[in-house]
Amino acid sequence: MSTSILPFDIPPSYRLLAHEFGHALAYLLVPLALLYSSIYFGLKGYKRVYGALTLGVIVGFATATSVAPIRCPPAASLMNFGVAVGILKTLDIFARRHHPRIYNGSSHLPPSLLALLLTTELRYESFTPNPIRVSTSPFSEPTDLALHIAAFAALQMLPQEHAIILALQVLLTIYILWTTLQLILRYHDSPPLFGPLYQADSLGGFWAKTWHNAFASPCTSLAYHPVRRALSRVGLPIEAARAGGLVAAFALMGAFHVYALSPLLGREGLRRVWWFFVGNGVAVVFETGLWGKESKMGRGRRRGRAILAWAFEVGFAAWVVRGCGVPEGLGGIRWLEMCEVREGGVGIGWLGM
Question: What is the pTM of this model?
Answer without folding.
Answer: 0.89
